[in-house]
Specification:
Order of helices and strands: HEHEHEHHHEHEHHHEEE
Oligomer: single chain
Bound molecules: pantoate
Radius of gyration: 19 Å
Number of helices: 10
Helix content: 25-40%
Strand content: 15-25%
Structural class: alpha/beta
Strand order of the largest sheet: 3-2-1-4-5
CATH superfamily of the largest domain: HUPs
Number of strands: 8
């Protein structure tokens, strides 16, 4: 893959890269279409990265179907699929990891310690292997985007990060490979996440809430009353750069990111909303 990428670069081609863990859905296709539109060559990786899963998480049962993914890639115009085996990526005595301090410990990082070290490490490795000019990520993983953007900027990585909007089902549920785990009942109930995020955004923009703590408490109460099956893990209101908590919304100006994670049964879902607030 590295030799092919090197050749493509030498021959003046612009490379777009869409890293994935497979079990592709429309959200991934959306990234591929954007990349195809802006680049000469599209490389997609399909790799369920063991290093970003914690013990007890769903690494073993993460949905995998290479042939299905292959046809999705073919349809979307992917030029190269990079599909290595874990021991090709992490050889014996593997020792080097990339950690974006501080940002990686916030939000998701509190509940999934080490997860973003795994993400940053594999993305850095895949950037070195696929040598892209542009790499495409979904806004659904807002913290991943913030961390990888910081990594690229701090380490002077010669790749431009492109962020594409979260694709949603008609119900508002954010698309995710993990949605296949949801029962019909939970799939229905999970639409509350997008609903509550939109309500909170409107309340902030109309100046209804100045204190983030009260707003988060009310969001939690709303979710728990409407969907008793849902177990909310966290709601965070932060900036979108260093992911620092915003306590007082009244004098805050700039991008506001509201993120949350919740369990429906055993399935853990994340979602977020990003918008700009002016005073
Ligand atoms: O977002 C994902 O699917 C993964 O975290 C990524 C970026 C492919 C790295 O394994």
């Amino acid at each position: 893959m590295q030799e092919i990428a090197e050749f493509l670069r030498r021959t003046g081609r612009n490379i777009g890269f869409v890293p994935t863990m497979g079990y592709l859905h429309e959200g991934h296709v959306n990234l591929m279409i954007a990349a195809k539109d802006e680049c000469d060559i599209l490389i997609t990786s399909i790799f369920v990265n063991p290093v970003q899963f914690l013990p007890g998480e769903d690494f073993e049962k993460y949905p995998r179907d290479f042939m299905r993914d292959y046809y999705v890639c073919k349809q979307a115009g992917v030029d190269y699929i990079f599909n290595p085996e874990p021991d090709e990526v992490y050889g014996e005595n593997y020792k080097t990891f990339v950690n974006v301090n501080d940002l990686s410990e916030r939000l998701e990082g509190k509940y999934r310690p080490g997860h973003f070290t795994g993400v940053a490490t594999v993305v850095m490795k895949f950037f070195n292997i696929t040598k892209p000019h542009f790499a495409y990520f979904g806004q659904k993983d807002a913290q991943q985007v913030a961390i990888l953007s910081k990594m690229v900027s701090d380490l002077n990585v010669d790749v431009e990060i492109k962020v594409c909007e979260t694709l949603r089902e008609e119900s508002g549920l954010a698309m995710s490979s993990r949605n296949v785990y949801l029962s019909d009942k939970h799939r229905n109930e999970a639409t509350i996440l997008n609903e509550v995020l939109n309500v909170a955004k409107n309340k902030i923009l109309t100046g209804d809430y100045e204190d983030a703590k009260t707003l988060k408490r009310e969001m939690k109460e709303y979710i728990e009353t409407k969907t008793p099956d849902c177990s909310l893990q966290y709601i965070a209101i932060t900036d979108n750069y260093l992911l620092k908590k915003i306590d007082d919304l009244s004098d805050y100006e700039g991008e506001v990111l509201i993120s949350l994670a919740a369990f429906f049964g055993k399935t853990r879902l994340i979602d977020n909303i990003l918008f700009t607030k002016k005073i």
